[in-house]
Amino acid sequence: MRVVLLGPPGAGKGTQAQIIARKLSAPAISTGDIFRANVSGQTDLGRQAKVYMDAGDLVPDEITVAMVSDRLAEPDAVDGFLLDGFPRTIAQAEQLQTSLSGLGQALDRVLELVVDEEELVRRLSDRRMLVDGEWVQRGDDEPGTVRHRLEVYREQTSPLSGFYGGIGLLSRIDAIGEIDEVTERAMTALGKGGAAEGASSADPTAG
Ligand code: ADP
């Protein structure tokens, strides 16, 4: 299956992406993770992306789209994938439609994780990731940057629900509750509900 996971920062996309991808036997492709790996590896891409990420802004579409196209062309993504954090703008969504149709492929479903803003702010300010054995706050989870990221989401990414709703691909998932419950709702929306296989585990580093 080819699935997009949509949702604001803190909705649990990263956590659900790992679990759902395992159940679908497809790779979870997270643009945020790819960018962060490039930042730590001090690559050119990482240097370009870091400025935007630190400010809580989106990395420009041309950088992001090229990176995702390369990733989707890798052999493990040919039969299916779960995209986490991409697309994030209407322009990215249109590019994705074009590149998939060029490959004779199409999205099967877009899952939007829905969480109210008060809960998002609470989750993001509590979130820590494990780096070299220490729990640290992600630079862009600092309160001022969190507020800005939520604004960016509202302005640039939330229009994607209308875009995908308009072409009949959108399923909105209530993302408040136990991790397993949210996964079950997502699997039901993918037509694969009721399968309790695959142990799931909470990943506090995932967004
Ligand atoms: P979150 O969903 O919690 O905001 P991500 O890990 O998905 O976290 O993204 C972190 C940052 O990486 C974003 O704030 C943005 O700067 C950059 N980024 C990730 N995906 C995209 C994208 N599709 N387009 C532009 N920038 C992106």
Task: Give a quick set of tags describing it.
207 residues; alpha/beta; Rossmann fold; five-stranded parallel sheet; two-stranded antiparallel sheet; globular; binds adenosine-5'-diphosphate
Please describe the topology of this protein.
Elements: E1 2-6, H1 13-24, E2 28-30, H2 31-40, H3 44-55, H4 61-72, E3 81-84, H5 90-102, E4 109-114, H6 117-126, E5 129-131, E6 134-136, H7 143-157, H8 159-166, E7 170-174, H9 179-189
Parallel strand pairs: 1-3, 1-4, 2-3, 4-7
Antiparallel strand pairs: 5-6
Bound molecules: adenosine-5'-diphosphate.
Care to describe what's here?
By secondary structure, the chain is an alpha/beta fold. It has one domain: P-loop containing nucleotide triphosphate hydrolases (Rossmann fold). 50% of the residues lie in helices and 14% in strands. It has helices spanning 13-24, 31-40, 44-55, 61-72, 90-102, 117-126, 143-157, 159-166, 179-189, and strands at 2-6, 28-30, 81-84, 109-114, 129-131, 134-136, 170-174. The strands form two sheets. It has a five-stranded parallel beta sheet with strand order 2-3-1-4-7, sandwiched between helices. Strands 5-6 form a two-stranded antiparallel ribbon. The longest helix is centred in the C-terminal third of the chain and has 15 residues, at 143-157. It is globular. The model is unreliable at 197-202 (pLDDT under 50). The structure holds adenosine-5'-diphosphate. Adenosine-5'-diphosphate binds at residues 9, 13, 31-32, 35, 52-53, 56-59, 64, 85-88, 92, 140, 149, 207.
